[in-house]
Amino acid sequence: MKYDIEKICDEVCRIAISAGKYLKEEQATFSRGKIEMKGVRNYVTYIDKEAEKRIVAGLSELLPEAGFLTEEETVQFEQKEYTWIIDPLDGTTNYVHSDTPYSVSIALMKDKTIVLGVVYDPVAEELYSATGKENVRLNGQPVSVTSKNELQNAYIGFGIPYSLDSAGEKILQNALAQFRNCSFRIKGSAAIEICYVACGRSDAYFHSALSPWDVAAGTFILNCAGGKCTDFSGGENYIFGRELVASNGKVHDAIMTNIIK
């Protein structure tokens, strides 16, 4: 079945904003006593689950025949021709500590290709969306990546996985060696940080041990904005392969050589 992807995107944006409003309201009265632990430093709350239920309900009305892949598993995973990939609260650690940023991330996958991405930051009230290279927006305005073409003075985001193995430690050591050369930041929401590259705030971002719902929407938005995404081997398995290097494309090789190597 063929759909008007632009109209669908408009509705997804509305659903993301509504979920983001719920997250923001709940954070103001949130008690840390209601935190659950998935693992070391890996939090989940009733808010994640409720936000996911609301998003799933809205998307189910929009495309009743679509399947879902969600972080909190409030709906059973079933891959279909169209599958929604959802993170209802990316940046939960920030959220439970009354910090920012955090975001809502929603992607639509047709067969094995992402065709739509929406990421919403409810605190900054920033809505990133894309349906293709001719339509990538931040709050309705076109965006593109930076023209930075070297590591000198590059502005780079990264994340540290919950479980840091020897390979991850090596990457951090390589990054440390570049600390006098670049500016590094950890924001705590992969979806937002990828979108920062897409809109030209950052030159690159890297992280390992990521899940599809962390990156599906953001990487599509970045690719549409002229950026580049790979796994740590330089391949294209960055959505399901749990490794991501996201860049403006121009500093990608330098990051692979000097940090990911």
Helix-strand blueprint:
Layout: H1 5-27, E1 36-39, E2 42-44, H2 46-62, E3 67-70, E4 82-90, H3 92-96, E5 103-110, E6 113-121, E7 126-132, E8 135-138, E9 141-142, E10 155-158, H4 166-176, E11 183-185, H5 190-198, E12 204-208, H6 212-224, E13 228-230, E14 243-247, H7 252-260
Parallel strand pairs: 3-4, 10-11, 10-12
Antiparallel strand pairs: 1-2, 4-5, 5-6, 6-7, 7-8, 8-9, 12-14, 13-14
Percent range for β-strand residues: 25-35%
How many helix segments? 7
- End-to-end separation in angstroms reads 44 Å
Evaluate the radius of gyration: 17 Å
Give the SSE order as H and E letters: HEEHEEHEEEEEEHEHEHEEH
Multimeric state: single chain
Fraction of residues in helices?
A: 25-40%
User: What CATH architecture label of the largest domain applies?
Assistant: 2-Layer Sandwich
| Number of domain units | 2
Taken from the alpha-carbon principal axes, the silhouette is globular
Query: What do we call the CATH topology of the largest domain?
Result: Fructose-1,6-Bisphosphatase, Chain A, domain 1
Q: Describe it for me?
A:
With 261 residues, the protein is an alpha+beta fold. It folds into two domains: 5-142, Fructose-1,6-Bisphosphatase, subunit A, domain 1 (Fructose-1,6-Bisphosphatase, Chain A, domain 1, 2-Layer Sandwich), CATH 3.30.540; 155-260, 3-Layer(aba) Sandwich (D-Maltodextrin-Binding Protein, domain 2), CATH 3.40.190. The chain has seven helices and 14 strands. It has helices at residues 5-27, 46-62, 92-96, 166-176, 190-198, 212-224, 252-260, and strands spanning 36-39, 42-44, 67-70, 82-90, 103-110, 113-121, 126-132, 135-138, 141-142, 155-158, 183-185, 204-208, 228-230, 243-247. The strands form three sheets. A seven-stranded mixed sheet has the order 3-4-5-6-7-8-9, sandwiched between helices. β10 (155-158), α4 (166-176) and β11 form a beta-alpha-beta unit. α1 (5-27) packs antiparallel against α2 and α5 (190-198) runs parallel beside α6 (212-224). The chain is globular and about 50 Å long.
